[in-house]
Amino acid sequence: MKPLIKIKDKYIGTQKPVYIIAEMSANHNQNFDKAVNIIKAAERTGADAIKLQTYTPDTLTIDCDRDEFKIKGSLWKGKNLYNLYKEAYTPWEWHPRLKAIAEDMGLDFFSTPFDETAVDFLSNMDIPAFKVASFEIVDLPLLRKIAQTGKPIIMSTGMATLAEIDEAVYTIREAGNDNIALLKCTSAYPALPEEMDLKTIPHLGRAFGVPCGVSDHTMGIAVPVAAVALGACIVEKHLTLSRSEQGPDSAFSLEPDEFKTMVDAIRTTEKAIGHVRYGRTEKEKKSRSFRRSLFVVQDMKTGDKFTPENVRSIRPGFGLHTRYIEKILGRTASSEISKGTPLSWKIVR
């Protein structure tokens, strides 16, 4: 089991920077220039990678009008599967050019294959990793084919039972590949925050000994940021140039400014998680004086008794610790003391 995977020069796992994937999906609306602009937007947001999906309508389904091929629920209700994928797919001839553009910008570029021909196609492009979609987690021959490339595999787990995830991970490992990361995912479009169950993320990590993260289809950025706080080391989120340019996936995608806000919030969250630590930070040391301590709050003469009226626990923190109040009361002043003097043992007898 490997608690770390490596994609190109980036290690992914706990105690490493969160790996942020911008999912293009169908948001190019079959326009190559728009696909390029999405890659440029991903680079500006601070994402680590841009991800495509590699399929054609014929590699995913068949052209059939039977009722079984009509979508019954979700964002695409009423659409025919073949026609939806025809509208949404990314032309394969775009892939090499988009990869070159992305890599020139410093972005990792990889994709989700949906059949064995796509695995071969992407392998010939020498992509650095493979993504497995939630719906394909049960396609064991496809998983075996991907595993045999030896490339890192990031696999979404939407809809999957623990037993199904275990079978998928076992299939990949049995094929000789232990470079696996798992993503908690809710396969609804858009997904509701209350259906995300992000506490599953650390459980996945413990159960399979792999880096874990989230593939998020909720609206907004709260869910991925919360996932990072719970230990997610990968975040995948759809990116579109504008939700007003309607497409199959635009409704649950982030616009560039929103995606950048998410990236910035994730980076801040990483810093805030830190380590288990007690005591004062360097900056907190300057605040120590604002603690309470014991002060003389009335003018006193030599021999006067210390009482609750002339000794109090107040700010700032330059006097004796408050734990000594019971030992001070009833004793006497060793010299004249002016109001506002920090209490110290040298003025007590």
TrEMBL record:
SUPFAM superfamilies: AFP III-like domain, Aldolase. PROSITE patterns: AFP_LIKE. One of its GO terms (biological process) is carbohydrate biosynthetic process. InterPro entries: AFP_Neu5c_C_sf, Aldolase_TIM, PseI-like, PseI/NeuA/B-like_N, Pseudaminic_synth_PseI, SAF, SAF_AFP_Neu5Ac, SAF_PseI/NeuA/NeuB. Residues 293-349 form the AFP-like domain. GO terms for molecular function: N-acylneuraminate-9-phosphate synthase activity. It comes from the Bacteria. It holds the Pfam family NeuB. PANTHER family: N-ACETYLNEURAMINATE SYNTHASE (PTHR42966), PSEUDAMINIC ACID SYNTHASE (PTHR42966:SF2). This is NeuB. It comes from Desulforapulum autotrophicum (strain ATCC 43914 / DSM 3382 / VKM B-1955 / HRM2). The lineage of its organism: Bacteria, Pseudomonadati, Thermodesulfobacteriota, Desulfobacteria, Desulfobacterales.
